[in-house]
Amino acid sequence: MVGAVSAGSVFGAFERSARAHPENDFLWIPASATKGYADARLLFSYAAAAAEIEKLRQVYARAGLGAGHRVAILLDNRPAFFFNWLALNALGVSVVPINPDYRREEMAYLLGHSDAVLCVALSHRIGELVEAAASTGRSIPVLDADKVLNGVPAMPSMSSDDRPLVHREAALLYTSGTTGRPKGCIISNEYCLTMADWYSTVGGYIKFEPGKTRILTPLPMFHMNAMCCSAMAMLATAGCIVQLDRFHPKTWWQDVAESGATIVHYLGVMPAILMQLPEGPYDRAHKVICGFGSNAEPEHHLAFEKRFGFPLVEGWAMTETGAGGTIMCTEEPRHIGTRCFGRPPAYLDIKLVDEQEHPVAHGEPGGLLLRRKGAEPRQGFFSGYLKDDAATAEGWRGDFWHTGDVARFGPDGSLHFVDRRKNVIRRSGENISALEVEGVLQRHPAARQLAVTSVRDTTRGEEVIALVVPNDGVAADMATAESIAAWCLERLAYYKAPGWVVFVPAIPTTATLKIQRAELKKLAETLPGAAGCFDVRHLKKRGSEAA
Prior knowledge:
Blueprint lengths: L9 H11 L4 E5 L12 E4 H17 L7 E5 L4 H12 L3 E4 L6 H11 L3 E4 L4 H9 L7 E3 L24 E6 L9 E5 H13 L12 E4 L6 H14 L2 E4 L8 H8 L3 E3 L4 H6 L14 E4 L4 H11 L3 E5 L10 E2 L11 E3 L5 E6 L12 E7 L11 E2 L3 H7 L5 E9 L5 E6 L3 E4 L2 E4 H8 L5 E11 L3 E10 L7 H12 L10 E4 L13 H9 L7 E3 L7 H4 L1
Parallel strand pairs: 1-10, 3-4, 3-5, 5-6, 9-10, 9-11, 11-12, 12-13, 24-25
Antiparallel strand pairs: 1-2, 7-8, 8-18, 13-14, 15-20, 16-17, 17-19, 19-20, 21-22, 23-24, 25-26
Helix pairs in contact: 1-3, 1-7, 2-3, 4-5, 6-7
């Protein structure tokens, strides 16, 4: 198999596959994901997709779009996303995917900050985007994706980019903005192609058959995982992208079986939700060889594999690190149930450090720092934050990328995820992982869903608070709150147990079912003393005190 990087660009990799395997399935979208714009499932071969892409490429070329331009796209997970992305990439244009959950103010920030010269969107979002574009103070045409072929306004000329095609910007992906305004991560063609090469050759449980592998993902195309990992690996190896609009638990196994998916992508609580479903005829009527994701709840991991018949391969990555810093647990021992994400590959330098950036003892949790070995420590990583050299330099201080995550080494050198550093609760000098506490409380029979964060405490600095969505029939009262705290006290050190338990109707989550930590934190600070929030701090005593 010829390496994808040699194709020079994202479109170059697609074009090579389309020429070699025009009859292969390129994009398969089940009926569960087409509601609102199609009456049935959609299937495009490489030849059919190439024809759609070429029509768009010609229209964009006539408008003068080329290297140096950025075009914002709000196209959800529909075929239009893939066709417009590849048509624009063929011209050297960088795409700026917009999160469909963004509202007008957030859209305006993205359009202004990115210097987008054009926006292409679904028809029902045009009004919002026109308002957002107007508020930037620049003239940014907003086009209905269904009408692009009718013509595109002439675009302003840009200064030429003399860099090799592979090093030019392919996309601008915005971070979640949990600590302020979202940052624009500059993603090069090389980044995308390196990801395709890494994923298709990483081996172990992840076995690729060029032209035959089919990856199903419910993750959004504005995220690195779906856009740069699953989609890139498929278009570079003539495989099939099985794209859902979002995670549909009730139709998941039917979609997996009928699509012929051989690999599925997951995040966070998805396996736990699927475990709650009753047994069905599609549970094992599939061709899946593995799932690829992260942060499966430890108590569900092994049970999931036994029930559905394939391993969940845990990994670690972030938009900034790309394939350059991705670590995967593709081989045994996987240490199931310990949040293990594998041993560092030979080409990575890894450090685990304390808050003063001194190395921690082996087995102790520390901030995860990494880089590529050799003369190019940033190989495969993002190119930097747009208009924020200071943040880029801060992330790379000491010539290591500072991930913001906390991990620990196991006895055999495997890495185990502890938590995001900003999710670590600091109570009376003790560091507490919100993720660890959540993992324990999730097993309590009263909890359907929960999240843990901190609230200010005048005595201890911070205190642990658990927000709980109760199961049907569970009383949201002090007795249940004390039961939840006691459950934790039986399984973890006393200081890790929640001092406050609050019952809520829902937990703020992202489109990929990740907890919105920033929103959770804001909400939590308003809850102590409110109705439905119970003070259980009296239960938190050291063993001798409790006795």
